[in-house]
Write a structure and sequence with these properties.
heterodimer; A: Cytochrome-c3 Hydrogenase, chain B; 2 domains; 3-stranded antiparallel sheet; 16 helices; 8 strands; about 15% strand; B: Alpha-Beta Plaits; 3-stranded mixed sheet; 6 strands; about 20% strand
Chain lengths: ~375, ~160
């Protein structure tokens, strides 16, 4: 591949081959843009010179809409931001409002929230890794991973009544307690799930074709990642040891013993697509650790005791709450004007920030590599366009 | 630029190829013998658990009167503004009843707030999940479409009492 590029470059330099830049639109109806994203590509032959993402095809006015809703009514809308990680979205928003109101949560609520958020992280990473394989051309792991995701969704469905858009975390607690047998089902799932990670590693992540397509592709150096504000697996894939669950502890994450996964450039350069994907794989195992520890000390109690009758934060109160979403730092900045509706809700979506780096890391790659890079960023257009 | 270091070299067993082939086939066979996770959907129906939030419906008591007293709370709490209630007075004990009750199922986001806020347990999320329409007008469920006998909704009502 390198030879080819050198050849092309040599031809162009010598003037034997006259080329012109070509503008090509990838998407919005393209399977590997993971939604309605349009990438304007400036191409030199097959080599990417510039990538300009065009957003807004899924814009639903979330922030403005939230101003017309009462505080609890915004929660179903946060579900629909990053629809693969609705639990984590709920978590970020309710944290912000709870801090404004100064609510102390019952122990059991915190435990259920952590377990749900970690299950959701596994489910989201399963989609990320599965569809990444699909982008590269590995169809089977996708089916295996989606099958395992179904088990998580089944648990969610029995608890919250919905498979995707849960509306489960409420300000001051949860909409209702978990179903009977929840602990056993989650425990069984974790036990079943761990071996499948090894299976996926042998099937997909250490597969020679997969490694060749992803190793050394789209290298994101740590300093670039930080200067662009990347977060989540994108940042950790570049070797930066930063995880909000540990570095800005919220809920009860500081009680558990777990480690932050950082990319190490195992098969290629540090910060390449393979590293980002591998961080997600390893994070699923870490999530399993957290869930097991949470289940071991799962307290009894009532989950609805702290639910406030009236949600009206004091006038002028403002709060920024951030949580570690499967895609990175998800922040909600909520400002109150003393009425039942928030004065302003600003959502800091990790996918939006992570996507901004695509131009920087895909320059000089082939178009087919661009698909691998875009897949490794793991975007969800619901939160990018909001 | 995308170049791959050729760190990985095939071992002797991998070079023979056949053992690797057998390994691959073993995995395939294992998967074939696994319990099936798919369902032959239109023939094999799925029964939702009682926690399932399907289409919202109105509870019809055994005496043929709806529970709803047309207080309008559901319509106020609905984030998607899907519910439209018009109250009227009745000689019954409950004094008020909904003369018109419409849920626009194209707007409904199945959040369950209407059910949570209802003081009479008159609107509940049923287990109906097959909601396909061919016309916009069909998507607006009026009282005829919404009223469901209480016997059908028993599991959900019991679940709500146990968990709320």
């Amino acid at each position: 591949m390198a030879d080819l590029k050198e050849n092309i470059a040599e031809h162009i330099e010598s003037g034997r081959l006259k080329t012109d830049e070509l503008i090509l639109h990838m998407g919005p109806q393209h399977p590997s843009t993971h939604g309605v994203l349009r990438l304007e590509l400036v191409l030199d032959g097959e080599i990417v010179v510039k990538v300009i993402p065009h957003l807004g095809y899924l814009h639903r006015c979330f922030e403005k809409h939230a101003e017309a809703m009462t505080y609890p009514q915004v929660i179903p809308y946060t579900d629909r931001l990053d629809y693969l990680a609705s639990m984590n979205n709920n978590h970020g928003y309710v944290l912000a409002v709870e801090r404004m109101l100064g609510i102390e949560l019952p122990e059991r609520v915190e435990y259920i929230r952590v377990i749900m958020a970690e299950l959701q992280r596994i489910a989201s990473h399963l989609v990320a890794v599965g569809t990444y394989g699909l982008d590269i051309g590995a169809f089977t792991p996708f089916l295996y991973l989606f099958r395992d995701r179904e088990y998580i969704l089944d648990i969610f469905e029995k608890t919250c009544g919905a498979r995707l858009l849960y509306n489960y975390f409420w300000v001051g607690g949860l909409s209702h307690d978990v179903h009977t047998g929840f602990e056993k089902e989650v425990g069984d799932f974790v036990k079943y799930f761990r071996p499948t990670l090894t299976e996926v590693n042998t099937l997909l992540n250490y597969n020679k074709i997969f490694v060749q397509r992803t190793a050394n592709v789209g290298v994101l150096p740590a300093d670039v990642a930080i200067s662009y504000g990347c977060s989540g697996p994108m940042l950790r894939g570049s070797g930066v040891d930063f995880d909000l669950r540990r570095d800005d502890p919220y809920s009860i994450y500081d009680r558990f013993d777990w480690k932050v996964i950082v990319g190490d450039g195992e098969v290629g350069t540090l910060g390449d697509c393979w590293d980002r994907n591998m961080v997600r794989m390893k994070e699923m195992a870490v999530s399993c650790d957290i869930i097991e520890q949470a289940l071991a000390s799962f307290p009894e109690g009532d989950v609805t005791t702290a639910l406030p009758k009236r949600i009206r934060p004091p006038k002028g109160a403002e709060q920024y709450a951030r949580v570690e979403n499967p895609r990175g730092e998800l922040g909600f900045y909520v400002v109150s004007d003393g009425t039942a509706n928030p004065f302003r809700v600003k959502c800091r979506a990790p996918g939006f920030v992570n996507l901004s780096v695509i131009d920087e890391i895909s320059q000089g790659h082939l178009i087919s590599d661009l698909v691998a890079i875009l897949g490794s960023i793991d975007i969800v257009l619901g939160e990018i366009d909001r | 630029m995308a170049t791959v270091d050729k760190k990985y070299t095939l071992t002797f067993w991998e070079k023979i190829y056949i053992p690797e082939l057998v390994k691959g086939m073993k995995l395939t066979l294992e998967q074939m013998l696994r319990k099936k996770d798919t369902r032959q959907y239109p023939e094999e129906r799925w029964t939702p658990p009682p926690s399932f939030r399907g289409a919202p419906v109105l509870v019809l008591e055994e005496n043929g009167v709806e529970r709803c007293v047309a207080c309008g709370l559901c319509s106020r709490v609905c984030p998607a503004l899907a519910i439209d209630v018009q109250a009227a007075e009745t000689a019954d004990e409950k004094e008020r009843y909904p003369a018109r009750f419409e849920i626009n199922m194209l707007r409904c986001i199945f959040c369950g707030f209407c059910e949570e806020v209802c003081p009479e347990e008159a609107i509940v999320m049923s287990n109906r999940y097959e909601l396909a329409f061919t016309e916009y007008a069909d998507a607006i469920f009026d009282k005829d479409a919404l009223l469901t006998p209480v016997a059908e909704l028993r599991p959900r009502l019991e679940y709500l009492r146990a968990h709320r």
